[in-house]
């Protein structure tokens, strides 16, 4: 992507984010959010995150790889376990990263 | 409270969230430069967009040479939830001039909203409470710019091929897992994940936006189905 296009993209990203945040404050301050929209938006973070995490773990090289040779899958599952038990984001990232490094050193990844 | 006292109270209440969000800003900065963005563009994204998860996703899309309309569309979908925050704080800001509204909208992140809405909803004299939101938003903004710069600096030191992109996946695991506390959210995540796998071959990385929409619909449907099932169970007992 050309450098000019990167800047145009950043500007538009900022614009849509700002207008979303500004929307009800300025334009529709007398309108309440329809209940269905309110409910649907609750699921946006989990859906978006899962849509990135699942392929990131299961298809690190572009095709589905469920095997002991997939170090990212093993390290990611361990990280998920840590996240579930501890709720600590820092510990999750550190343990998951250390696990992938350990698997690579052991020759299990790739 | 005076404007100054409201502002400082907002900053103080935001402090624990600053500590929690700081590592994410650093990881973002490091990922952004390793994805090929220039250090200036990486920092500019924190200034212009100022939305953690959307920034993370954008670094991944930039790295995959995604066409710009898809990056903007994905950003819009990821940040649509901010419209809820906008609607939620709107009644408390309706008396303010346009400049104030624009400034507070720019600063209306997950973390600022989460803290400030508690103050807005307290009973009592409410006139100066926009200063509290400003304190929350401005302290988060300052922290985010600083840790982005630190991350950009550190990321430039990390050689490519060290698996820094896995940090994005780990960050998202850390954010996602604690959200999975009720069935509709779990269903939304499962359907989004499965759709993302199935749609991985779609051009222009459109699979992400498609998977997010499928997950959202699945979550809404799952929430509709739960009461019916509970009724059946109750009828059986």
Question: How would you describe this structure to a colleague?
Answer:
The complex is a heterodimer of chains A (110) and B (237). Chain A is mainly α. Chain A folds into two domains: 31 residues; 79 residues, no CATH class. Chain A is 73% helix and 0% strand. Chain A contains five helices and no strands. The radius of gyration of chain A is 20 Å and the shape is elongated. The two termini of chain A are 30 Å apart. The model of chain A has no long low-confidence stretch (mean pLDDT 89). Chain B has two domains: 173 residues, no CATH class; 58 residues. Chain B is built from eleven helices and no strands. The radius of gyration of chain B is 20 Å and the shape is globular. The N and C termini of chain B lie far apart (56 Å).
**Structure classification of chain A:** mainly alpha
Largest interface: A-B, 69 and 90 residues
Query: What order do the SSEs of chain B take from the amino end to the carboxyl end, as H and E?
Result: HHHHHHHHHHH
| Average predicted local confidence, pLDDT of chain A | 89
What's the SSE pattern of chain A?
Answer: HHHHH
End-to-end Cα distance of chain A? 30 Å
How large is the count of helical segments of chain A?
5
In this structure, how is the largest beta sheet of chain A organized?
Answer: none
């Amino acid at each position: 992507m050309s450098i000019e296009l990167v800047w145009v993209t950043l500007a538009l990203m900022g614009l849509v984010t700002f207008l979303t945040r500004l929307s009800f404050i300025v334009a529709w301050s007398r309108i309440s959010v329809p209940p269905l929209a309110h409910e649907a938006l609750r699921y946006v973070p989990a859906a978006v995150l899962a849509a990135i995490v699942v392929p990131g773990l299961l298809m690190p090289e572009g095709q589905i790889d469920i095997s002991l040779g997939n170090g990212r899958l093993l390290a990611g599952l361990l990280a998920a376990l840590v996240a579930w038990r501890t709720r600590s984001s820092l510990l999750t990232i550190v343990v998951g990263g250390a696990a992938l490094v350990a698997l690579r050193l052991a020759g299990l990844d790739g | 409270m005076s404007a100054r006292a409201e502002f400082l109270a907002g900053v103080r209440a935001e402090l624990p969230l600053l500590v929690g969000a700081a590592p994410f800003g650093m990881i973002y900065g490091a990922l952004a430069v390793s994805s090929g963005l220039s250090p200036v563009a990486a920092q500019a994204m924190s200034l212009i967009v100022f939305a953690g998860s959307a920034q993370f996703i954008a670094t991944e899309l930039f790295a995959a040479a995604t066409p710009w309309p898809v990056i903007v569309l994905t950003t819009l979908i990821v940040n649509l939830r901010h419209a809820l925050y906008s609607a939620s704080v709107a009644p408390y800001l309706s008396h303010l001039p346009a400049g104030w509204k624009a400034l507070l909208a720019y600063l209306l992140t997950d973390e600022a909203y989460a803290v400030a809405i508690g103050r807005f909803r307290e009973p009592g004299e409410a006139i100066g409470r926009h200063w509290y939101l400003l304190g929350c938003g401005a302290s988060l903004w300052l922290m985010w710019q600083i840790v982005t710069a630190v991350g950009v600096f550190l990321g430039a030191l990390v050689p490519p091929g060290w698996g820094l992109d896995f940090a994005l996946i780990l960050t998202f695991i850390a954010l996602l897992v604690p959200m999975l506390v009720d069935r509709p959210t779990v269903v939304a995540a499962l359907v989004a994940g499965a759709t993302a796998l199935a749609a991985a071959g779609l051009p222009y990385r459109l699979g992400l936006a498609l998977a997010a929409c499928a997950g959202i619909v699945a979550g809404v449907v799952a929430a509709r189905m739960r009461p019916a099932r509970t009724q059946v169970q109750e009828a059986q007992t």
